Structures are given as C-alpha cells and as structure tokens.
Amino acid sequence: KLPTVPPKLVVTCFISPQDTLLTAKVARSRPVLGQHNPQQSDLVSTATVTLTQGNRSVLLSYNPAEQVYQAEARAFPIEAGKTYT
After folding, report:
1. CB of 85 within 8 A of CB of 52?
2. How is the beta sheet containing 9-12 ordered, strand by strand?
3. Minimum mean pLDDT range among 34-43, 46-55, 72-81
4. pLDDT at 76
5. CA quadruple 39, 41, 45, 47: dihedral positive or negative?
6. I want to staple 26 with a disulfide (CB 3.0 to 4.6 A). Which of 44, 70, 77, 82 is the partner?
7. Strand-pair partners of 62
8. d(C-alpha 56, C-alpha 84), whole Å
C-alpha cells in the first residue's frame, strides 16, 4: 500500500543576463498513482510569482497566451554569478 500524495507546485524558470524577458512557468505535479483528467490543465495561472536577489525584486505577471509569468528584463537586470530566488 502506497500513500496518497497530493500534487505539489513545480516552478520552472531559466534566466540569463542576455534575456529580454524573464519567464517562469508554474504547474502542479501529477501524482503517479490516481486519476488524471486530461481536460484539466496542470498549469497554475493564479500564483503570485516574485523573482528576488538581495533587496531587489520584481513581480512577474501571467501571460495567458504564452501560459507563463513574465517581466521585462530591463526592469530587473540579471547579473551572472548571482543567486536568485
């Protein structure tokens, strides 16, 4: 008997100093056991997504056409070698 595990949030974000857009995708994991409804999306469109480095931060807005959260890179320049959360 395996325990039932609820879905968890999965955040995918690749950033680079050369990017013109900062993007992040937020979804729910799909448990191995249980039912999957193909009519229901695993994407999350109602999250608050903030990219932070030190005392700087930027809020990413949801873009429904691309199904990602985005912000202009010029509003929050990415620096190589820094850690972002």
Report:
1. yes
2. 9-12, 21-28, 68-72, 56-63, 49-53
3. 34-43
4. 95
5. positive
6. 44
7. 69
8. 10
